[in-house]
Amino acid sequence: MIAASRLFLRVLALWRPWAGWIALSIAVATIATLANVALMAVSGWFVTAMAVAGASGASMNYFTPAAIIRGLAILRTGGRWVERVVGHEATFRLIAALRVHLFERLERIAPAGLEDLRSGDVAARLKGDVDRLELMFLRLVAPLTVAAITTAIVAVWAGRHDLGFAVVFLVAVGFGGLLVPVLAARRTAAASARTAAIAAELRARLVDDLEGLTALIVTDAAPAHVAALERRHDALVAAERSTATASALAQAGIGLSADAAMIGVLALGVPLVAAGALAGPDLTLVALLVLAAFEAFAAVPTALIGLPATLASARRIFETTDRPAPVADPERPVDPPEGARLEIERVGVTRPGAARPALADLDLAIEAGARVALIGASGAGKTTLLELLVRFRDPTAGTIRLGGVPLTAMTLEAVRARIVLVGQDPHIFSTTIAANLRLAQPEASDETLHAVLADLGLTERVEALPEGLATPVGTAGAKLSGGEARRLAVARALLGDARILLFDEPTEGLDPQTSARVIDAILARAGTRTVIVATHLPIALARMDAVVELDAGRRVAARR
Amino acid sequence: MTEAGSLLAAGRRETGAALPIAILAGVTHGLLAIAVAWTLAGLVDGVVLGGEGLTEATPRLVVLAALAAVRAVLVAAADGAAFRAAARVRRHLFRRLLDHVVALGPVRLAGRPTGEIVATLTDAVAAVEPYWRGWIPVTAKVAVIPLAVLIAVVPFDRVAALVFVATMPLLPWFMILVGRGAEAVNRRQWQTLARLGGHLLDAIKGLAELKIFGASKREIAVVAAMAEGYRRDTMAVLRIAFLSALVLEFFATLSIAVIAVTVGFRLMWGTMEFHAGLFILLLAPEFYAPLRRLGAERHARMEAVAAAERLVDLLDRPGPSRPAGTARPTFTAAVEIRLEGVDVTHADGRVALFDLELTIAPGERIALVGPSGAGKSTLFALLLGLVEPSRGRVLIDGVDLAAIDPAQWRRAIAHIPQRPHLFDATIDDAVAMGRAPASGTREAAIAAALRAAQAEAFVARLPEGRATRLGERGLGLSGGEAQRLALARAFYAPGPLVLFDEPTAHLDRDTEALVVAAIDDLARGRTTLTIAHRLDTVARADRVVVLDCGRIVETGSAEALRAAGGRFAAMAAAAERRDDRLIGEAAP
């Protein structure tokens, strides 16, 4: 666990280049807040002073206060707008800095170090964490700083009339602006941890039950499971309720403190006015000043209550970015070999904390240009083996050689320039179809792209898109199905120059005709290159030189 | 009103007494501000102009303190009640969605990623909260408080009342602005932010691909450029969007300034009481306070509507076209199944089965054969009651399946899927699935089922035996082990119909022999349908039914079909030529 203060310092360090924007944003916000506070106080003073003048028949210079009121009104209105614009400008700059930092760090450890991000849940959590950290300045740092500065200025102003006023004000601020929100935040921190745990459990249960929905319905276990899910959802709401109560109490505390500060000022000020030690209009001024000053605290409970969650997000993000890189370049890389024969020697992989190895004692040699099918149930180790070959991870035992040279002796770049993998759930970027394809071959012409798409049976699909190859993926009409995304990823890999092509279940979810077409395209375009396909498709097995079968991380049988 | 809007509005029925309490407490809190202003103005008037001392002022100080306490309680009570109102709506929506998901079943849900449904059930349901907790209470305040302030001001000062009335048209105008214009601008702004968030996540999710193609370092600069570009675009939009808030600020501030100055002069001229003058000045901000809150809550409403759209999207998926049957015949002996001209058409118009005519005699062993997509799985889904025929009938011992209570019928089925799902539960729970055993105690029945499924030995080797928790997706079990647990599940409470989806993946030879022996055992004396992938399995069947493109193309014994030289013969020959003895596709 990283200490909260160190987390804060790390975030501040990321913000350092934009210190000027941060200072400007806080300054503008403070001015707008003070203009608002002063507007009420000066107006109250003015009204009282005019009443006193009217009653006593004395003359009064009303031009200056009236001008000040007008000035404050303009300052408040304009100030709020400038405050928002500058605050958001600053935030966006901070966001950019944070994103680049995050991406640089994650790039080192991906993909094996980020394996848990494959699950949508963890990815969504990361997005939530990044969002929260991105708004940390706008929602947390800025309101707290502005409240602190406002407090100091108002205390000095009130204290100039009588020191007692400042004391009353500061006590009220200490209670409603600090003590109550901090207590609420503390109570919330415990509750949020419980809420997060229950929410995670509810999600996990939902995933489990949805994936096993057939079994639930067939065995008539659905009503019992639905009831159990409802109970968990109720528990989640109940846990959230204590957070809600804390925040409601904190809001009530702010209002109560504001009123108490005003009442305290009156109780102190009335005898002073009666004794002639304080001018009547000044009583109105100070009373309204301390009352209005609490407007600066409106966002404080939310900020303080949100602090533990923001720190938890920061902690999770930094703990992710601090993960060790799963693979590294060797200190003295060996020149990549000419040959493309793959030798897998007594290779084993055991994940930390796993009861069984993901792969054990695997021996396999694959000649350059061979076509190999990899079969076995899910969890058998096929994906792990393919990931070892592109060095997304390294084996915990044994060696893999390419053309006689251990993979770990070459640079990562050299390995991946020679061996390319299309994963089970390949990522298609939210750019155009063409940009997705050119990732593998930046110079490829449109004709080349069309040709490979035709081989994979995607021509009609792409021609139906509003802008053809230039259509951004994911926009209306261009939401690709899982099968289409997989085929696009296969096309992308086939465009490259790698000598060894790895495919993890390239035909899953495709109908038989399309599956056959994809396998044909892979084999035709591979030419003399090595092809290794993890698949269950009988038609694919038939066209391979060899079939390697894995079960629970071990090799079961090889045919032919 | 949009569908999402009516879904949100329908939630009011569920809120019970909590919502009126929330609204009442909130509105009362706002109204008490008028009392506070009156008391405070009276106190200052007495002290400054009336020469009163602390003794005379004390009653008013006490009233102020009492009002402060009551208002603090009301703030807390209003939010607590609003939370309860929202919680009731959330609870109702969660239940409704869950029931709908179960009613849809796995077949009608196919094509929806699990993660998406989970997000709808959790995030989208939770996102409805701010609508009930924030938006609705504030709209109630907007409707009541400015009017009440106006009524309080009119008897004392026509000028101030005129200022309020002059800005009153702003009220509906601002409501419309909030409802339409600002929402559109705001939505664009949030979409942009979401897209920016999306790009980073897109790049992170695609890091594997970026690395494979040596582009991951290059992407760092892209991330920076994206963020910078979005900053420029978004700020251009935001500068305008913030103007709508500026308008409200402007009117509120201007009113305070105008009232302060006009009241001040009339006080000096002696045409107004100081008590009334200060009272009006103190009320001026209260007139605009609810409107400012409304501006702050509009984002909450917008997100709630977006979330409700996702809920509607799921709830709109059509479920079964007719109500479940109620007949509860008992099925003890092997059943007879008759399909009469059955079509199955999916919601998207895909025809999965077409004009199926098939009679399966009690105790018959059928092997279903055909390429993937032929309709084998749909036939199983049909028999399991997960889809219903769009035409024709399914008769079980002569009774229409549509008339039979689905739970009663499913108790008659032992279903062993190809990739059985094992819940995060103990081995015992995985076998029993909450059902009562067919005979004897639960303990004994589970033990017997594990023995019959040839699973006893490997379960005994697990760290805690039958009490071992399987973890997510039955992690750590081999394909053969998972298969045998599914078999044990079937043996635990076996019905007279066995539906077995043979795994395509190879099991090791010993495991395969164990599974085959167990299945043979289970099939004895029962009607059995097997989706067969192996020639050996087909050979053991009484009859082979060959499906393709949703139709039965051939049916007969394996020998007869091979002799006939049709589709099955081609598939079998291809399997033998490949020497994998896996039957599925004909040779290309």
Query: What are the low-pLDDT stretches of chain B, counting only 5+ consecutive residues below 50?
Result: none
Rg on CA atoms of chain A, Å: 33 Å
Low-confidence stretches of chain A: none
The helix count of chain B comes to 21
Count of alpha and pi helical runs of chain A: 18
Strand order of the largest sheet of chain B: 6-7-8-3-9-10
Mean pLDDT of chain B: 85
| CATH-derived topology of the largest domain in chain A | ABC transporter transmembrane region fold
Write structural notes for this entry.
The complex is a heterodimer of chains A (560) and B (588). With 560 residues, chain A is of the alpha/beta class. Chain A folds into two domains: 4-321, Up-down Bundle (ABC transporter transmembrane region fold); 342-559, P-loop containing nucleotide triphosphate hydrolases (Rossmann fold). Helices cover 63% and strands 10% of the residues of chain A. Chain A has 18 helices and ten strands. Chain A has helices at 4-15, 19-56, 63-109, 120-134, 136-161, 163-211, 213-218, 222-274, 280-293, 300-321, 382-389, 412-418, 433-438, 446-455, 459-463, 482-495, 512-526, 538-542; strands spanning 342-349, 359-366, 371-375, 397-402, 405-406, 419-422, 500-504, 530-534, 546-551, 554-559. Chain A starts with a helix and ends with a strand. With 588 residues, chain B is α/β, with parallel strands linked by helices. Chain B is built from 21 helices and ten strands. Chain B has helices at residues 3-10, 12-15, 18-48, 54-109, 114-126, 129-153, 158-167, 170-205, 207-212, 216-269, 274-315, 376-383, 406-410, 427-432, 442-452, 456-461, 479-492, 509-523, 535-540, 558-564, 567-578; strands at residues 337-345, 351-360, 365-369, 391-396, 399-400, 413-416, 497-501, 527-531, 543-548, 551-556. In chain B, strands 6-7-8-3-9-10 form a six-stranded mixed sheet, sandwiched between helices. Chain B has a four-stranded antiparallel sheet with strand order 2-1-4-5, with helices on one face. Chain B is elongated, with a radius of gyration of 36 Å. The mean pLDDT of chain B is 85. The interface between A and B is large, with 154 and 156 residues.
